[in-house]
Amino acid sequence: MSEALRASQHYGYETPSNIPYNYAAFKAKRDANIAGLNRGYETNWEREGITLVRGAARFIAAKTIAVELVNGSGVETFKAEHICIATGGKPIVPKIPGAQFGITSDEFFGLEELPKKIAIVGAGYIAVEMAGMLNALGGIEVHMFIRGDKILRKFDPMISETMTRTYEEAGIVIHRGYKNFARVEMFSGKKTAEEKVLNLRWDGDDGKGFIVNEVLWAVGRSPDTEDLDLGVAGVLTDEKGHVRVDGFQNTNVEGVYALGDVTAQLQLTPVAIAAGRQLSNRLFGPTKFSQSALSYNLVPSVVFAHPEVGTIGLTEPQALEKYGAGNLKIYHTKFAAMFYDFFPAEEKKHLPTEFKIICEGEEERIVGLHLIGLGVSEMLQGFAVAVKMGARKRDFDACVAIHPTSAEEIVTMK
Fold first, then answer.
1. Strand pairing of 75-79 and 83-85?
2. H or E segment at 141?
3. Contact of 257 with 83, CB cutoff 8 Å
4. Which of 144, 205, 228, 368 could pair with 314 in a Cys bridge, judged by C-beta atoms 3.0 to 4.6 Å apart?
5. Confidence at 7, pLDDT banded by 50, 70, 90
6. Contact 339, 359 (CB under 8 A)
7. Which residues are catalytic?
8. What is the rounded radius of gyration, in angstroms, for the C-alpha atoms of the chain?
9. Which residues are CB-contacts of 173 (< 8 A; sequence separation ≥ 6)?
10. What pTM was computed for the model?
């Protein structure tokens, strides 16, 4: 919305530049909306005859769990032929003195006010989404501390390079070569946005440190398995605590399954939902679903950054390793979206739209599609269907372009 308000000035609207933002009002509406969604889920479960038990569960046998009820009424025991572990993941907090003075993406949603100056530690999608959102609001000094020289390093180089440059041009300060803070000192424990003052210290900082109002840890997530007593049931995990599963979501214990972020598979909400559907079909559906399993190949994903990022399939380095340079054809385009036509030239050049198609073999089968720009989150879903079905470059070429759109560039790349 902040970006739209600023853009409106280029379209003839006399929009003031200093429109105040009432974060408290927004937070109240957001919290009410989330509460409504939760009530909706609970209503649906009740209608379907599903019993919701609130508490902390742990295995006491291979097919038995004990739940310490949150209402304090004691422990309830459940036995079942089928048990599915879907406890998800949790943010990782560095094990340094004072780390608890910062927040994670979980606690961010509890903030009553936004900080005036924030340090975001991490370079992945959560860090990038948070940094982009806070910077777009305006009036917030955003600093990112990253280990390497680019953000979104696991994405295609086009994405990591363009997004790093774009974020810096937008005013986000990126501190490269982050080696871990040694400690976090709290100068002021008051929790208002301006009165909370933290000093981030590191070895060799000459006693100065880095002063902020908030630090957000976005250094990764770990599976939420520590308190489940999986060993009692004999369920195996990997070295990071992820539950080991096969392609059908089976653990090594018959009748015990796992899906979602608690496994080492793709950590996306729609992936967990889809895996759950396939598992329930296989366990409780007709025989035609006896081999139902989710394909983790070619899953589209989006980073709701500023601008948005959409991707499906292999990155260029992954494709080179798998197929070899001689078997690849890369298509790439970069342009300014028409929405920005009325923007000043200097401003427009900092608002990129950039697409890449990665093709393999003589048939030029599309094995990777990477998008940056306004609205690519909506564009990707339809193109992902085509890529999932094995589309070739000539299939895209044969599609008549919709003009004027940014998406037409995907089917007209040369």
1. unpaired
2. strand 141-145
3. yes
4. 368
5. very high
6. no
7. 403
8. 24
9. 141, 142, 143, 144
10. 0.95
